[in-house]
Specification:
The protein has 457 residues and is an alpha+beta fold. It is built from 16 helices and 21 strands.
Length: 457
Amino acid sequence: MGDGFADQLGEAMGGARVLTDPDLMEPYRHDRTTWVTPGHPRAVAFAETTAQVSAAVKVAAANGVPVVPRGAGSSLCAGSSAMDGSLILSLERMDRVLEILPDDQQAVVEPGVLNADLSVATAEHGLFYPPDPASKAFCSIGGNIATNAGGLCCVKYGVTRDYVLGLEVVLADGTVFETGRRTIKGVAGLDLTQLLIGSEGTLGIVTRARVRLRPAPEAAATMAAFFGDLGAAGRAVAAITRSGLTPSLLEIMDQRTVCLVDDWKRMGLDRDCAAMLLAQSDAPGAQRAEEIARIGELCEQAGATYLAVTHDPDEAEALLQARRLAGPAIEQRGIAVWEDIGVPRSKLPELIDAVQAAAARRGADVYVFGHAGDGNLHPTFLVPHGDDDAMARTLEAFDDIIDVALELGGTCTGEHGVGRLKARHLEREVGPVAVGVMRSIKRALDPQGILNPGRWL
């Protein structure tokens, strides 16, 4: 059964690599959501061109085979984990930066381009692509578009959808079409680009993207503020938000996360603090020092016990690396169950208190960090391998935290996506009418329901 389908794929895709051996397919069953059990795919195909993606989808549609698009496999909501009998369509080989247009401040990229590689390519032109997930070194632009990813700089610069001008997309019948335009402004027709961003591969497969760039800012001023309790750090974030200041980064790590990172990488972090708040200002000229100083004052008023400020890029990068390593440090110790909830920024102190209370009540091992500047936290649970009881308690705490986030007027997912993990929470957040509209759009674009089924609907 698998060989015949694979033969059709290979022929239609012009000799592209197609796997059917279970051992060879094994790495492609899983994404970074390691604690969710994936299915067993029928085949894995590696596309290198849009034409090959289109051909693969046509063969899958003719055989009624579900298609799971996959980029770097860095999903934290089981958004690219395999389904039984599915075709895993890997886009990892579509990894070229096709154009950089400095005069228009735009780039054209394939979906397999890593976020960090785009940053390197644009820096040569004095430009940068602002969305920068903590996983930027190993997440792809296609996946960023699929989930509308944010990152460390989104507090000032926004998220992926703010930087995508147009897409080339393969639909569920293999048809290729383009959305958007090259101009900054344009209101002709419905905005199909925005419809596809965040749709997690359920409406179409992105094969090319035109993104906006910005002039690279000057080296930022960076501040690390240390607090005697986590709630005080949350109050500092609320005060910074009220002040009208626009830091280019505002990240939080609790003591347990700080110590875990320091245990792993020996970075000399302050292990006695209850929380560390990282802030940056990339304001021009003298405004930069003024803004970071004002942020420091607000932190002290909220209860910061110590401030450290640097204008040195290497020292700043070392501090940011500590934040980027929070998740991997947890994954070094066992199974990481990632949360991704967001609340209005004024509710951040309440959310932090609720996370700690839920973990204590359920006996779960939680580490709190995230994008404090936009109210998006990633409380992440550590579960020892093989400890089913700990996993059960963790999942109870996981749902408790989502309940609190929704009660506070927030969301069950700020940037990781719904995927398989949070599909049951979607209707509660957006309502049955909205879910009905989403399902109608899905049926119109994918009447067979073959594109990444079982994710958000």
